[in-house]
């Protein structure tokens, strides 16, 4: 998402680096569900021992709640920045409440509690139930004030619920009438987290040979993708709605990628190429947060040039724009941003600086 969220020019972006207009799935649409999936996998590894000891559940849940509140707060800060420092009272009036970090926070906390308190067998049933309930709500429940159930951007049940609870002032600024991280969509997003938990719990089993693990995980991933594509015929794959078919499709792909990575890196020890990913991964939330703030800081710093006053962001980007076509200049700026943060994160990694949320 560092690459996707930092084009030099939002008006010139290669199609694979954009989200789907509505139904469908681009490579960019895979990033968020993959992250929630690996959050679930991480829960299974990090809290596995605590699940077996009920005496530790209270302390673990409190720590999870604290982490979730911090993530939620960081998401709100990104929404408010930089207005929070210039007009704090006025900026709150139009503050977007849903968001990416906010959804991560909710999914992490709820998934963690469910993992600790519910057996794996029941988690499987709950996973299916969440997908089925969301499908039923979105396709059968009439939308108040609109009419029959539908999947339109502004007229679906989730959009109505968000407007009713948050009001249009606190929704995504690009629409004001619906939000891609809306409240109802949290239900299937939790299912994505549970998908990761179930995969993680299986992956950490010591009684199953590695080859069998990889085979089962890859087969499960393939099956989920096929089921997702079949369900797409009736309940379209849609990232903004986080449809049940989207959960299966992206979860299946994530499972196959994880199985392949496990086989190549952990089992066969081909790991020389992994350091850039590790460097980014250990400070993932940190770089996501900082990379969202830096462009705004550069945009508000004004400087005088021979051509008049401009901001630092525009001045830096002009070097790309004057030497490449608009779409390539935009892409190269995004790639440069990724490399810029890689250098910083590499230094942090070598110095063992890991900022945990």
UniProtKB/TrEMBL annotation:
Transmembrane residue ranges: 30-47, 68-85, 97-116, 123-143, 182-203, 215-234, 246-265, 277-298, 330-349
Tree of life domain: Bacteria
Keywords: Membrane, Transmembrane, Transmembrane helix
PANTHER family: LD22376P
Name of the protein in question: DUF5009 domain-containing protein
Naturally occurring in which organism (per UniProt): Pedobacter psychroterrae
């Amino acid at each position: 998402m560092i690459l996707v969220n930092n084009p030099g020019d939002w008006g010139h972006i290669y199609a694979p680096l954009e989200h789907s207009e509505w139904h469908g799935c681009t490579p960019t649409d895979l990033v968020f569900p993959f992250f929630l999936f690996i959050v679930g996998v991480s829960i299974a590894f990090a809290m596995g021992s605590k699940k077996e000891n009920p005496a530790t559940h209270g302390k673990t849940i409190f720590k999870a709640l604290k982490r979730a509140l911090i993530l939620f707060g960081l998401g709100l800060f990104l929404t408010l920045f930089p207005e929070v420092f210039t007009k704090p009272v006025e900026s709150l009036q139009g503050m977007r409440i849903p968001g990416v970090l906010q959804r991560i926070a909710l999914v992490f906390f709820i998934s963690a509690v469910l993992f600790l308190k519910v057996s794996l067998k029941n988690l499987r049933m709950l996973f299916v139930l969440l997908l089925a309930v969301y499908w039923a709500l979105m396709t059968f429940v009439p939308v108040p004030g609109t009419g029959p159930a539908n999947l339109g951007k502004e007229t679906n049940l989730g959009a109505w619920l968000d407007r009713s609870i948050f009001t249009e002032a606190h929704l995504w600024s690009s629409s004001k009438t619906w939000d891609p991280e809306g409240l109802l969509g949290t239900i299937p997003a939790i299912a994505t987290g549970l998908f990761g938990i179930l995969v993680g719990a299986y992956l950490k089993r010591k009684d199953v040979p590695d080859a069998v693990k990889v085979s089962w995980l890859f087969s499960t991933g393939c099956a989920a993708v096929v089921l997702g594509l079949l369900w797409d015929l009736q309940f379209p794959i849609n990232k903004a709605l986080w449809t049940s078919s989207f959960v299966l499709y992206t979860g299946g792909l994530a499972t196959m990628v994880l199985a392949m990575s496990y086989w190549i890196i952990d089992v066969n020890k081909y790991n020389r190429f992994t350091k850039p990913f590790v460097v980014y991964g250990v400070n993932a939330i940190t770089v996501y947060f900082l990379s969202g703030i830096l462009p705004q800081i550069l945009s508000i710093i004004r400087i005088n040039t021979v051509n008049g006053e401009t901001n630092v962001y525009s001045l830096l980007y002009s070097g790309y724009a004057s030497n490449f076509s608009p779409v390539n200049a935009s892409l190269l700026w995004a790639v440069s941003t990724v490399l810029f943060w890689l250098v910083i994160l590499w230094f942090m990694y070598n110095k063992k600086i890991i900022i945990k949320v």
